[in-house]
Amino acid sequence: MIAISEEVRRAIEGGTAVALETSVVAQGLPPPHNLDAARRCARAIRDAGAVPAAVAVIGGRIVVGATDAELQRLADPALGAAKAGVRDLAALCAAGRDAGTTVSATCAVAARAGIRVFATGGIGGVHRRGAPTEPLDVSSDLLELSRRQVCVVCAGPKVILDLPATVEALEALGVPVLGFGSSELPAFFTDSSGIRLEHRFDDVASVARALRIHWDELGHGSGVLVCVPPPAPLSRAEVERAISAATGEAARRKLAGKELTPFLLARLAEASGGRTVQSNLELLENNARVAGDVAVALGALR
Ligand code: PSU
Ligand code: MN
C-alpha cells in the first residue's frame, strides 16, 4: 500500500530522505504557486545534499517520493484531490482516490517508511474561537506529532490559530519545540508571536544531537518541532486585521473541519494582495533547505 520510490528507498537507508507534505499543493496554495512550491522545496532539499520524498495518495496508493507528474495531478484543482488527514488515509486508499497529505498524515507515513525529517510551512493547531459556544477545533497535526518519531521543520504554527493555546497543547503532549536561529516562536507568515522559546539552536549539528538524545538515548516516541523564522515576514498587525475579518466570516458561514484552514489562508491571500502567498513560498523553501541540512547532520551522527 505504501509505494516508496527507488531513490527514496536508498536515501532512507543512508538517512538522508526528507518528507514533504502535499496538502499545501492540493489545498494550501493556489495554482501555479502550488506546483512551484513543491518543485522549489524539492530543489532546496537536493541542494542540501538530501533527497526529497513528497508524500501523497495517488489512485488509492500512498506514494513516498511522488513524481513531478503526480505532483501536477495534485496541483490541478479540476482533478479534485482530497485533503488527507491521518484518519482519512485508509478510506481514501480503499476508494482509489487522489489526495494531498496534511502534516498529520505525512508524519504517520514518514514514520512508517523510516523517514526522520519532514519539512512543511506551518503546522495546524488549536483554532481561535469567537465564542465559547463554538466547537473546539484542534488539528490532528498535534496528536500525530506527539506519537511519531519525526522532526518537523516548520515556521511555527499557522498565525490563523490560537497561538498560546497551541503552544500549551504542544507542552501537554510532550513535544519539544526548538527555535532555529530565533528565541521567539515564529507564526508562519509573521516572525513575531510574542511567545518566547526556551530552547534555541543556531546550527543544525546541535539540532541533530538533540534529536539523537530525544529518540535514541531517552527513547521518546514523540516528534520534535523545529521552528524557523520566515525569511520574508509580514507585519503581525496587518496579518491580525485580516485574520479577524476572515475568522468572523468563517463563523458566520459556519465553516468547520477541514475546510477552515484552506478558507482562512485564501482570505488572507486576497486581503494582502497575494503577499501572504509570496511569504508562504519563501518560508516553505527555506524550511526545506533547513530540513535537508538537519537530515544530513543527523545522518552524520549515525
Ligand atoms: N503549510 C502550508 N500550507 C498549508 C498547510 C501547511 O504552508 O496549507 C496544511 C498542512 O498540511 C497542515 C494543514 O497539516 O494545513 C492543517 O490543516 P487542519 O488545520 O485542517 O488540520
Ligand atoms: Mn481542524
Record field, number of beta strands: 11
Q: Which molecules other than protein and nucleic acid are bound?
A: pseudouridine-5'-monophosphate, manganese (II) ion
Q: Cα distance, first to last residue?
A: 29 Å
Principal-axis shape equals globular
Q: What portion of the residues fall into strands of 2 or more residues?
A: 5-15%
Note the main sheet: 11 strands, mixed
Mean pLDDT: 97
SSE order, one letter for each helix or strand: EHEHHEEHEHEHEHEHEEHEHHH
In short:
Helix content is 46%, strand content 14%. By secondary structure, the chain is α/β, with parallel strands linked by helices.
3D architecture notes:
This protein is an alpha/beta fold and 302 residues long. The protein has a single domain (2-299), classed as Indigoidine synthase fold. The chain contains twelve helices and eleven strands. The protein has helices at 6-14, 23-28, 33-47, 68-75, 89-94, 103-113, 140-145, 163-172, 204-217, 236-252, 260-271, 275-300; strands spanning 2-4, 17-20, 51-58, 61-64, 82-84, 99-101, 117-119, 151-154, 177-180, 199-201, 224-227. Strands 1, 2, 3, 4, 5, 6, 7, 8, 9, 10 and 11 form an eleven-stranded mixed beta sheet that branches. Helix 7 (140-145) links the parallel strand 7 (117-119) and strand 8. The longest helix has 26 residues, at 275-300. It is globular, with a radius of gyration of 18 Å. The two termini are 29 Å apart. The structure holds pseudouridine-5'-monophosphate (PSU) and manganese (II) ion.
